[in-house]
Specification:
The chain is an all-alpha fold. It has five helices and no strands.
Length: 67
């Protein structure tokens, strides 16, 4: 669910996972682990960095998880 929200914005903004890593300072390994589902509960700091870079309201992550 988390990655679906991120991926939607990546596609919308035409940003690659590699570029997201460079924009946020989050390692490519972490981005990849989020994508593959190896990380399902990332640190809040990582979510904030990604949300800020992609203009995602943090509540979108919460809403997706509670549905």
């Amino acid at each position: 669910m988390l990655w679906e929200t991120i991926e939607k914005q990546l596609n919308k903004k035409k940003i690659t996972a590699y570029r997201l890593s460079k924009m946020t300072g989050v390692s490519t390994q972490t981005i990849s682990a989020l994508k593959t589902g190896k990380i399902t509960n990332p640190r809040f700091e990582i979510i904030v960095k990604i949300a800020t870079a992609l203009d995602i309201d943090l509540n979108e992550f919460k809403e997706k998880e509670t549905k």
